[in-house]
Amino acid sequence: MASASQRHRRVRRLRARIVSDSNNYLPICSIPGCSRPTTRAAKVGLDSFTCRYHQQHKQRHGSHWCKSPSGPILSPYVSAALKVIHSNWEAPFVAAAVAGLGSGMSTAGPAEPATRLRGLPPERRAKIALARLREAGVKPERLLSIALAVHALIADAPEKCHRVSEWRIVAVAKAAHRLASGTHRQWPLHQPDGRVKHIVLHAYPRSSGRVLRHLGTMIEKECEWVIERHLAEVVALKRATEPPTNAAV
User: Fold this and answer.
1) Residue 137 burial (CB < 10 Å; 0-12/13-18/19+)?
2) Does the model's pTM come out above 0.70?
3) CA atoms within a 13 Å half-sphere pointing along the CA-CB vector of 166
4) pLDDT above 70 (res 245)
5) DSSP states of the chain as a string?
């Protein structure tokens, strides 16, 4: 582990690079249609090609320009995937994926409240997200259906996707994260006049950064063989029950 003096030296070097006058960056963000300065040009970061807005967009969605699929977009694919999973429940790869996901959820440790996540490493926060899903009663087959659904969306409606692995992994993680993302508490507070006032706390962990990459990778790793064997079946079932999707992102 680096000492305090080493960390301070590293911070000073980074700050010196950020405010440097070296002409080694683009003045404007390289994403088409964006006129914001790159973070190097604005002297607020080290990215020579994109602005802060599109950097944050990639942190949240795994792509500089394409958003993660919303619930309504994924819903028909998830429904088709669940039908395929249940119709192949005894198949070896499906049984192994469900068992693997269940094991990952059961061994993820305690479901720490969202208010206690600051400072934890992303690997630990990803396991806490799995523990939170376990405590919410989410079944392993639902996580398997999400992984299948994201792959089916990419195969069926590529115009809605950015077909790179990071976007796909983040899409899987965000869809799983939505199932049980926050901590919700309520306390009664008795008033002098005899009434009871309820204090409510809703805390949500930030859905961005490396924690999504770790969570999505953990889920996808258990689902690889099912995706390879049953993806075409999910796409065919979705197309048979829903009209084709042709809308652009």
Assistant:
1) exposed
2) yes
3) 15
4) no
5) ---HHHHHHHHHHHHHHHT-----S-SB-SSTT--PBPTTTTTSSS-SS--HHHHHHHHHHSSSSPPPPPHHHHHHHHHHHHHHHHHTTTSHHHHHHHHHHHHHHHTS-----GGG-TT--HHHHHHHHHHHHHHTT--HHHHHHHHHHHHHHHHH-GGG---SHHHHHHHHHHHHHTTS--EEEEEEEE-TTS-EEEEEEEE-----SHHHHHHHHHHHHHHHHHHHHHHHHHHHHHHHHSPPP----
pLDDT at 181 over 70: yes
* CA proximity to 66, closest of 155, 143, 154, 156: 154
- Rounded to an integer, what distance in angstroms lies between the CA atom of residue 165 and that of residue 160? 15
> How far is residue 76's CA from residue 186's CA, in Å, rounded to a whole number?
35
pLDDT tops 80 at residue 141: yes
Convert the pLDDT of each residue in 88-123 to its tens digit. 999 999 999 999 999 999 999 998 877 777 888 999
- pLDDT range class, residue 184, cuts 50, 70, 90: low
Query: Using CA atoms, how far apart are residues 248 and 6, in angstroms rounded to an integer?
Result: 49
Compute the distance between CA of residue 36 and CA of residue 127 in angstroms, rounded to an integer.
37
